[in-house]
Amino acid sequence: MMNDQKPNADVASRRHLLKLGAMAAPAVITLAPASARAAASVLNCRVPFPDNVDSNGNACATPTPAGGGGNGGGPPPWAGGPGGNPNPGGGQGGQGGSGGDQNQPICYPGPGADMPAVDADALQKAILLQDDGGSSFDGQMAAYQKYLARVKSQQLEGSSCLMSIELAGR
Amino acid sequence: MSLAFQSFLRRDCTVRRVDDLFLVFFRPSGQTHMLPVTSMALLDALDETPLAVADIPAALAARYDTEAEVGAEAVVERLLRELEEVGLVEQVPMGRVPEEPVNGGVTA
C-alpha cells in the first residue's frame, strides 16, 4: 500500500517522522456511525458517520443495492451536474434502489460500528467494502472522503478530532 | 522474553490515501480507521515484521533516511498502544529463551 505511492508517501513520511517526538495527536481515528453505542476509548477520538453516505457526501436513507442503482453506464453521479450541492440537513431524499435514474447519487453503507466480525450485519458491510478492484469500493471510499470534507467545512460532530490529527502532521 | 509488535497490513487491510491521511479498512473487525502518515509508516514497517519497541525508532529512521529522535521510543509506544486497541498491531513474544538441558547437555 505505501509502496503503491512510494515517492510521495516516502517524502511525506520522512517529513512527518522528523517530528515524531513532538507528535501529540491521536494515532488512529475510528470512523463509526453516530448510532454506535460502544464507549469511545479515551485514547481514540471518533468521527461519527451517518448509517449510510451517498456519493455526494450526504446522509442517505437506504443503500443502493450492490450492482445496481443510479449509474447505468453514464458518468459517475459526482462528476458534475445540477445535483451536487450538499444538503445541510444531511439527506437528499430517497436514494435507495432506484436503478433506472442515472442522476441519483449512489447510497453506500457507512463504516461499520463496533460489531463482532462474526455478526451477519458486519459481514455484509465487510463484503460491500471488500476491495474487488471495481468501482464500488472506490466509490464508497470517495463517499466517505466527501463526507469528511463536509465535517471539516461545516464543523460537524467530529471536526475537532479530524483537525487535531491533521494539524499534528503539518 | 521481550515483547515486540507486528502488523498484518497487507494481509488484513485495504488502504486509500486522502491527502495526508490514510483510510484503512481493517477486514477482521470490519471497521474503517483514519491514520496520519506517522501511524501508517509504523504499520508499514511492522508488516509481518515483529520489532521490539526499543528498535522501532532506529528502524523507522533507517527506512526513511532520518535520524532517530531522543524520546521517540515513548511516542512510538503510545502510538502502538492506540493501534493495538483497534487491532491494527498485535504483541508477539520475541527471543524465546531456549530451555537449558537437564543433564548439562548430555543426552541418553
Please count the helical segments of chain B: 4
- Give the CA-CA distance, first to last residue of chain B: 30 Å
The whole-number mean of residue pLDDT values of chain B reads: 82
Describe the sheet with the most strands of chain A: 2 strands, parallel
**Total number of strands of chain B:** 6
What's the tally of helices of chain A? 4
Q: What is the approximate shape of chain A? A: elongated
The poorly predicted ranges of chain A are: 1-9, 37-43, 68-100, 113-134
Shape assignment of chain B: globular
Give the helix/strand layout:
The complex is a heterodimer of chains A (170) and B (108).
Chain A: H1 6-17, E1 29-33, E2 46-49, E3 52-54, E4 107-109, H2 120-129, H3 135-154, H4 159-167
Parallel strand pairs in A: 1-2
Antiparallel strand pairs in A: 3-4
Helix pairs in contact in A: 3-4
Chain B: E1 2-7, H1 9-12, E2 13-18, E3 21-26, E4 31-36, H2 37-45, E5 51-52, H3 56-63, H4 72-85, E6 89-94
Antiparallel strand pairs in B: 1-5, 1-6, 2-3, 3-4
In short:
By secondary structure, chain A is α+β, with helices and mostly antiparallel strands. Chain A has helices at 6-17, 120-129, 135-154, 159-167, and strands at residues 29-33, 46-49, 52-54, 107-109.
Keyword list:
heterodimer, A: 170 residues, alpha+beta, two-stranded parallel ribbon, two-stranded antiparallel ribbon, 4 strands, B: 108 residues, three-stranded antiparallel β-sheet, 4 helices, 32% helix, globular
Describe the structure.
The complex is a heterodimer of chains A (170) and B (108). With 170 residues, chain A is an alpha+beta fold. Helices cover 30% and strands 9% of the residues of chain A. In chain A, the strands form two sheets. Chain A has a two-stranded parallel sheet with strand order 1-2. Chain A is elongated and about 45 Å long. In chain A, 36% of the residues are buried. Residues 1-9, 37-43, 68-100 and 113-134 of chain A have low confidence and may be disordered. Chain B has 108 residues and is α+β, with helices and mostly antiparallel strands. Helix content of chain B is 32%, strand content 30%. Chain B is built from four helices and six strands, in the order E-H-E-E-E-H-E-H-H-E. In chain B, the strands form two sheets. Chain B has a three-stranded antiparallel beta sheet. Chain B has a three-stranded antiparallel beta sheet with strand order 2-3-4. The longest helix of chain B has 14 residues, at 72-85.
